[in-house]
Design brief:
Blueprint: E1 4-11, E2 14-21, H1 28-40, H2 73-83, H3 87-94, H4 97-101, E3 115-116, E4 119-120, H5 128-132, H6 140-163, H7 177-189, H8 193-200
Antiparallel strand pairs: 1-2, 3-4
Helix pairs in contact: 6-7, 6-8
Bound molecules: iron/sulfur cluster (2 copies).
One iron/sulfur cluster is lined by residues 64, 67, 69, 112, 114-115, 120, 122, 126-127, 130.
């Protein structure tokens, strides 16, 4: 039996997708294994996909054109390894420079730097926020869970970058209301066990899902 399963609820005629933890020992990898088929599913309603149905991998509409992605720490390390570059070069070449000055590790956007010919070029390694966002209605608790995981992962990247001396904040860059929202969230998360788990983990399988429930 899978440690995490997908369930469906109906709310005012709308189908909401959710997840159910079937086993206390489930890891973040178990959740990702249960979730990935939703990304590939062309039958479920996806609000922004062409004709409301597409696999995210093939989607030509692309939320990736405007996404605000602060990669989780596992993805950050794996993408840098895949590109065979060190972290300082990774940050210099692939992240939005004015956001770095504001203290935020945001992938270069509009469109995302990894979007090539309207397809994600690092699909198997993409960050948690990219994996979890599927533009379909979700059960409230599931939505809360996936954002909590994504924010903890992003906060861990920020903490890691600070510890490694990779973030040179000048403090004099302008910050949008979005930036401030994210900075506040990252501050809220940084001293939690969830962030600690990301800092200690090598893979998603090392991170217990129950930390986020
Ligand atoms: S990393 Fe890939 S999935 Fe994520 S925003 Fe960029 S192109 Fe899209
Ligand atoms: S979540 Fe993004 S990539 Fe997936 S179908 Fe919606 S718009 Fe397309």
């Amino acid at each position: 039996m899978n440690k995490v399963s997908i369930c469906q609820n109906e709310d005012h005629g709308k189908i909401l997708l959710g997840i159910k933890m079937e086993d206390e020992s489930a890891s973040l990898q178990d959740l990702l294994d249960a979730w990935q088929p939703l990304c590939d599913d062309t039958l479920i309603h996806k609000e922004y996909a062409a004709a409301f149905h597409d696999a995210c991998k093939a989607c030509q509409v692309n939320c990736c054109n405007t996404a605000y992605v602060i990669p989780d720490l596992i993805a950050f390390k794996k993408i840098a390894a895949h590109l065979t570059i060190g972290y300082p070069d990774f940050i210099r070449q692939y992240f939005q420079q004015d956001k770095l000055a504001a203290g935020l590790l945001r992938l270069s956007p509009d469109p995302c730097i990894f979007l090539q010919e309207r397809i994600c070029s690092i699909y198997e390694l993409r960050s948690l926020i990219c994996r979890f966002y599927i533009c379909t209605p979700l059960h409230g608790e599931t939505e809360e869970l996936i954002y909590k995981i994504s924010w903890a992962g992003g906060a861990a990247t920020q903490v890691f970058a600070e510890q490694q001396g990779l973030l040179n904040q000048t403090g004099n860059s302008s910050r949008s209301s979005f930036d401030l929202l994210f900075l506040n969230l990252l501050e809220e998360y940084r001293h939690t066990k969830m962030v600690e788990a990301f800092l200690l983990a090598e893979n998603y399988a090392d991170i217990p899902l129950k930390l986020f429930l």
